[in-house]
Amino acid sequence: MGNVTRTATRAPKVDQACAEAVDVARAAITEEPGHIGEHLNVVAEGDRVVTHYFACDLPGYRGWQWAVTVTRAPRSKHVTVCETVLLPGGDALLAPGWVPWHERLHPGDLGVGDLLPTPEDDDRLTPGYLLGGDPEVDEVAWELGLGRPRVLSPLGREEAAQRWYDGENGPDAPISLAAPRTARCVSCAFYVKLGGSLGRMFGACANVYAPDDGRIVSLDHGCGGHSEVLIDETVIPAPPTIYDDGVVEEVE
């Protein structure tokens, strides 16, 4: 191995003239004097370059600091200002980190008139010419040449199925748990089975009186609007006719 030369990095020294220019640094801050707090410290940035830190008293900026960098030319005692900036301190209140819009979306956020572009690399989709892996759908699409640019990928179908099953239209929904055990969608006349592999677990509700009308439901979902839910009507017999002789006036 060759000889390795290590060069020690010399920490810059605090320039005395620049460090004493507290008033020069304070005057460089253009905010109202009432918003500039006490002088906190001074840090050497380089040869004859230091930064003064002042507390910030602006409303809503708790823990922030004014930073003013000053310098001077060699063999000169005249200190000039390089820049001023407002920086967060260790306990400053900061805005939350930026989150891309597509990561902030939640199910159901799309409203009337909204446009939601789908990313080119969306894992839920696959190019139509590759087929989607659903034998029943792929066979029809291949024969008819539907030519959709993209179709659901196996991952897209799996995520949709899990989301539907775990949601308000699955077996654990409150309305499903409150319904009779025999009132399951799979045996309901209003249950319209989906095509393709998703049809093995899901269908659409067609009962206009049910809260799930027009929605995807799992075959083991249920509600009180099941077509075969029958209520035994109890017939109450009419009481016998009773005459009160005490109010009848006898006439000869």
Automatic annotation (TrEMBL):
InterPro entries: DUF3027. Pfam families: DUF3027. This is DUF3027 domain-containing protein.
